[in-house]
């Protein structure tokens, strides 16, 4: 049994807990939190304060770190990789290489292995971008996100004066998807790729026109997109927009010879972004444990993990039934 | 530069030749054939008789073997793995484990590495089946093939008395695809998954009714399927059915919690089955060379190859631009 710890118990931590509990080759030792442990209600897992994590140095094979990429993971992943094999879902694309270097040095010095930036993007989508380019080098790939909830964009709307609550969906435009699938290799602007749809609950007496204007002109977040704003009641938001669905597409078209076209497409449609992300991290925790057992240390990503390390099946089963 | 040899120069060998010629990190040393070399016209590559292959023992880093799975590869891959790192596309699913064991023993004894059963199924589809199951264990996956030409089925039709030429397409049924995508986890019979469409050119005076009857009742090949037969002229077959397109779908639906559904879908749409298969084999030749350089010997499959070995990009490029 691979002994797993979870650091951080938000939506992602809950997703990992579910995934580990459903993995027959794993046991879930503890959840660690910065909150008062007695205030954290888990699905049956023991809760400890993060300060006590070193007491578990020899009781946990892999720590799955479920903090945020902005401030938690840049500190927690290197720090915890002094003492544990770790898996995280660091997803600030621009800083991944720096994060990799930080974790690599510390983990290596301590004989631990850290699998960084797992999940679905970065993660499963990255794998597909790499495989697609390797097997179809003369081509172009496109990544579309959605339909799904963007937490960052929802937060940005909530900060506008007069907004009580909000939920923002990123939606890939069907026309752009179809142009990509056709193999025409279009140059697509931001506006052409995705639509942003916002469901907004106003505070009593708020100015709807002002709010809509503030949303649609918000730089970086909305100004470059076609943005649709719907005003709804809190009740309707609770009823119809409380899920955290997401998904998307990676599509590559290219050729092996003049006029000989190929299309490769990978897509995800997820009812729950954190539960699926947690499930991916759990599979990579299995790989992390096994590769560290074989002597691998430092930082790695999904690109370094041979697929077999993710599976619970034997070599013979894999060759007979999966290959 | 990775020095590549090609053993066998049918459609697949030609596809590999193209792919290697388009790979900046590879040089194509020679094509080996059982035919008289002077009768084989390549796209510029030197041709030698297969009997002379051992003269190239120190001149080729990876031999890509492009024979058929029925009789060529079970002999050629073990035999050549005594002297070369090898890549093949052995695709008789029922015999892969035996083939693996044969190649593994001989390659290991000789310090060589053999990557067996590459291509797209087995190959890219297998990878997707493994990844999908690992990240969504509580679910079911389905593989659909087509729309594409089945060489074996086309051959079977050609053997019927009165048939001059034929081309058979395997077509996934849209209704079955949609039931799978919906997440209902249907039990699908052979007949429900794929349609077989046949384009047949009759010999002068042949009995069309007899031929159609023979096709539709042919055990294993057609009897269990809905089969549509079209009679056309040789001219029309040459004009509209000379390509070798193929493709298909791997779809997995499953859940991470009660009522929390996810769908993962991978699809290929290929203008040329042998050119794409050759391109995949070429990417795995790169991995084969690198992994053997690191000391890996024996037989492996796509499941043993960390994705990074397939890419020409540096670690830094991969982490900054692909992850």
Structure report:
The structure is a homodimer of 323-residue chains. Helices cover 34% and strands 27% of the residues of chain A. Chain A has 323 residues and is of the alpha/beta class. In chain A, strands 3-2-1-4-5-6-14 form a seven-stranded parallel sheet. In chain A, strands 8-9-10-11 form a four-stranded mixed sheet. Chain A has a three-stranded antiparallel sheet with strand order 7-12-13, with helices on both faces. In chain A, helix 1 crosses helix 10 (273-293) and helix 2 (72-80) packs parallel to helix 3 (96-109). The first copy, chain A, starts with a strand and ends with a helix. At the A-B interface, helix 1, helix 3, helix 4, strand 13 and helix 10 of A face helix 1, helix 3, helix 4, strand 13 and helix 10 of B. Strand 13 of chain A pairs antiparallel with strand 13 (260-270) of chain B, so a sheet runs across the interface.
């Amino acid at each position: 049994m691979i002994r797993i710890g979870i650091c951080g118990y938000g939506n992602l931590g809950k997703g990992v807990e579910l995934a580990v509990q459903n993995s027959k080759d794993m046991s879930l030792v503890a959840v660690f939190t910065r909150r008062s442990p007695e205030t954290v209600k888990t699905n049956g897992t023991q809760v400890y304060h993060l300060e006590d994590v070193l007491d578990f140095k020899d009781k946990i094979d892999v720590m799955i770190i479920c903090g945020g990429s902005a401030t938690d993971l840049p500190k927690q992943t290197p720090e915890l990789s002094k003492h544990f094999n770790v898996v995280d879902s660091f997803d600030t694309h621009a800083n991944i290489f720096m994060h990799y270097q930080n974790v690599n040095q510390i983990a290596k010095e301590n004989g631990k292995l850290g699998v960084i930036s797992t999940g679905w993007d970065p993660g499963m989508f990255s794998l597909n971008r790499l495989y697609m380019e390797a097997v179809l080098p003369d081509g172009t790939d496109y990544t579309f996100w959605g339909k799904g909830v963007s937490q960052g964009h929802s937060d940005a709307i909530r900060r506008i004066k007069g907004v009580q609550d909000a939920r923002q969906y990123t939606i890939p435009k069907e026309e752009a998807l179809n142009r990509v699938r056709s193999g025409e290799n279009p140059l697509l602007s931001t506006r052409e790729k995705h639509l942003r749809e916002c469901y907004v609950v106003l505070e009593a007496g708020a100015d709807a026109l002002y709010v809509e204007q503030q949303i649609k002109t918000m730089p970086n977040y909305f100004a470059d997109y076609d943005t649709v704003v719907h005003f709804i009641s809190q009740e309707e938001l609770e009823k119809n927009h409380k899920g955290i669905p997401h998904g998307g597409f990676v599509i590559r078209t290219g050729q092996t010879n003049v006029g000989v076209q190929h299309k490769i497409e990978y897509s995800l449609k997820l009812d729950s972004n954190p539960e699926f992300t947690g499930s991916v991290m759990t599979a990579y925790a299995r790989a992390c444990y096994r590769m560290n057992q074989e002597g691998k240390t430092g930082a790695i990503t999904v690109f370094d993990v041979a697929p077999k390390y993710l599976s619970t099946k034997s070599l013979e089963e894999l060759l007979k039934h999966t290959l």
